Amino acid sequence: MYELLKKDGRAKRGRFTTVHGVIETPVFMNVGTAAAIKGAVSTDDLRGIKTQVELSNTYHLHVRPGDEVVKKLGGLHKFMNWDKPILTDSGGFQVFSLAKLRKIKEEGVHFNSHIDGHKIFMGPEQSMQIQSNLASTIAMAFDECPSSVADRKYMTNSVERTTRWLKRCKDEMARLNSLPDTINPHQMLFGINQGGIYEDIRIAHAQQIAELNLDGYAVGGLAVGESHEEMYRILDAVVPQLPENKPTYLMGVGTPANILEAVDRGVDFFDCVYPSRNGRHGHVYTNHGKMNLFNAKYELDDRPIEEGCNCPACRSYSRAYIRHLLKAKEMLGMRLCVLHNLYFYNTMMEEIRDAIDAGEFQVYKKRKLEGMEQK
């Protein structure tokens, strides 16, 4: 259940109550693709860095270890020892990004596993069954994520099929939630808006799926090659068409600046691999811009990554030490950078919520953007 607590311009401050706890929004979901955050980060670590929601990947867990295995072990929460909300994406994006050999048909998609090439079929029903086995808090509908540069005719047909698939997802989830052996009978379903950079297709699709009274709505198919300006233009057009009394989720976004701009346009949920991926390469986020700890200038720098930061890395270690770990290819170096970056993102979301509560989001956004543009 979503409660809209406050608006500051178009920015929304909400509270989303789930069977696995309350999510304060806007929120950044920490991405643990294969039921773990890359960089040797445990679920105990996540609790210590203010993580509210963990996001795992339906396709990857279906391929390995197998969703049936996870179900036998009591579901994803028990499997990974995490008692807060989990969102699982539908696998749709991976079907389209990883599969070179795929056939899209009305019933679903035939493709080959990226691990060993074995044939897999996934459609709306299969995606819901896998996510039900995983027993996540929030399941995403199975959609096609077409290329942002697909032509109008292809995009129209694709979006129409995604709508038909969404209705099948909704029916299948209702069926699964009613079964006696379902681990989480309160699993929620978010639908996904598609349409590339065609405003009219996006708007029409948003209006159609808004009528289905789902638990939440995502904007998909952005951050896949279009410019930031195009992304913001689409959000300006689409978000007002989605129900204000439901959470809005911008999938796969993004940089701190992207998040601030999207919050300003009414988005509640975010996820992105940037903080963990950049951290594993020694790139860390600060309020004064991004730093590359491999740079020689940090060799004798005994300061923390960021003065005043309360993350596990900054509380205990210097830039010089973390740089040494990275150069020596010690896993601890990667781990500390990932922890810092996720803490930075989770703290920024906390600051955003406080700023909206205080009616000062525009002031906060301006200050934050100006600070991060420094080098």
Automatic annotation (TrEMBL):
GO terms for biological process: tRNA queuosine(34) biosynthetic process. The active site is at D89 (proton acceptor), D271 (nucleophile). It comes from the Bacteria. Its cofactor is Zn(2+). One of its GO terms (cellular component) is cytosol. Residues 10-372 form the tRNA-guanine(15) transglycosylase-like domain. Its EC number is 2.4.2.29. Zn(2+) binds at C309, C311, C314, H340. Binds 1 zinc ion per subunit. Keywords: Glycosyltransferase, Metal-binding, Queuosine biosynthesis, Transferase, tRNA processing, Zinc. The keyword Secreted does not apply. It catalyses: 7-aminomethyl-7-carbaguanine + guanosine(34) in tRNA = 7-aminomethyl-7-carbaguanosine(34) in tRNA + guanine. Homodimer. Within each dimer, one monomer is responsible for RNA recognition and catalysis, while the other monomer binds to the replacement base PreQ1. Belongs to the queuine tRNA-ribosyltransferase family. This is Queuine tRNA-ribosyltransferase. It comes from [Ruminococcus] torques.
